[in-house]
Amino acid sequence: MIIIDGSEGEGGGQVVRNACALSLVTGAPFRIANIRGGREKPGLMRQHVTAIEAACAIGGGSCEGVRVGSRAMSFTPGTVRAGDYHFAVGTAGSTGLVLQTILMPLLLADGPSRVVLEGGTHNMLAPPFEFIERCFLPVVNRMGPTVTAKLVRHGFYPSGGGRIEVEINPAPLVAIDCTERGALLDQSATAFFAGLPFDVADREIRTAQKQLDWPERSFSVRELPEERGPGNILLLEARYEHVTEIVSGFGKLGVPAEQIAKRAAARMKGYLESTAFAGPYLADQLLLPFAIAGGGAFTTVKPSQHAMTAADVTARFLGRHTAFVHEANGIHRVVVG
Q1: The dihedral formed by the CA atoms of 213, 215, 221 and 222, expressed in degrees to the nearest 10
Q2: Reported pTM
Q3: Do 127 and 285 touch, CB atoms closer than 8 A?
Q4: What is the predicted pLDDT for the residue at 91?
Q5: Of 12, 60, 201, 304, whose CB count within 10 A is highest?
Q6: Cis? peptide before 105, omega within 30° of 0
Q7: Measured between alpha carbons, how far is 201 from 199 in angstroms, rounded to an integer?
């Protein structure tokens, strides 16, 4: 059994999600102590419980200590089966992070699967749906499988209520090299809002226009049905031939719309000024499929603590080393092997 201290490294829920995925892929059971020991409120949250329960469901596994607030748990995997699955977080907890837990094992299953996830689709501290659909899944699809995702309903924090549907056609993951973005094809900035004054989204877009030297047609505001709110997110997107980067800014009570837009624009400008293939959040997510594929390489900006922790967890299950090599112009080459 693999023993993990959940307070090490990044010290968050990513350790739990990656451990469940890798356990199902390798057949190795594990136990985690000090779950989310690096967080202000340690222990499992509702979305983590749903993710673990989903891992048990697709893999015929068993677990102990899985309840909200638990600081320790164990997981014993079974055999992953393709199927039609439906999981509801029950709160605004991230549907994307639950998908992150079960996607890799289902990519290696014995047939196609369909997964319906209900909960949060656009919430802080998790990738929004558009990031998963346009940034992460296209790279996964280049590795062999075919995965498509559809957003049925937006779900903002704190009300949730969102729904995504994912179709998975599995195939063995093959190692690829992702070091070149290719030419810039398009860029856009969209402020979504629901159940809030139009002025909030309008001020975000006006501020983004001042910060980014993009054509006027690139900026837009989109109102969602009022019952989907209250909620607001600013999405900044840069689409290249070989990769797409999305930077998000979430509306937050007490934080001016202008501040949210300035922060998001600064992060996007940092990516545009580099030559890295993957932004920091895409880099975090690519480590798992690359490790399961047995190798590959990509370039990124400065690796985050999330990435370092993900590399450590994958090494425990797969025995593969991840090298972070600092290169010119501030980028890092990440080599998995």
Answers
A1: -120
A2: 0.94
A3: yes
A4: 77
A5: 201
A6: no
A7: 6
Cis peptide before 170 (omega within 30 of 0): no
| pLDDT category of residue 285 using cuts at 50, 70 and 90 | very high
Radius of gyration of the chain (CA): 19
**pLDDT tens digits for range 93-144:** 889 999 999 999 999 999 999 999 999 999 887 899 999 999 999 999 999 9
Mark residue 329 as left, alpha or beta (left: phi above 0; alpha: psi -120 to 50; beta: remaining): left
Tokens read off for 163 = 């729904």
Helices (H) and strands (E) in the chain, counts: 9, 16
Contact of 93 with 102, CB cutoff 8 Å? no
Q: Is the dihedral of CA 243, 290, 3, 53 positive or negative?
A: positive
- Residue 332 bears catalytic tag: no
Helix or strand or coil: residue 60?
coil
CA separation, residue 19 to residues 75, 158, 235, 314 (Å): 9, 27, 30, 8
76 vs 22, 110, 173, CA distance in Å?
A: 11, 20, 24
3 state SS of 182: coil
Which CA distances in Å does 47 have to 44, 80, 206, 265?
8, 21, 35, 29
CB 154 within 8 A of CB 118: no
The rounded distance, in Å, linking the Cα atoms of 121 and 102 is 16
Q: What are phi and psi of 85, to 5 degrees?
A: -120, 150
Out of 306, 321, 326, 332, the active site residue is 306
In the β-sheet with 30-33, what is the strand arrangement from edge to edge? 2-5, 30-33, 73-76, 62-64
279: pLDDT strictly greater than 90: yes
Is 247 in contact with 282 (CB distance < 8 Å)? no
What is the spatial distance between Cα 153 and Cα 242, in angstroms, rounded to a whole number? 28
| Residue 224: alpha-carbon gap to chain centroid | 23
Region of poorest pLDDT, from 1-5, 11-15, 137-141, 271-275:
11-15
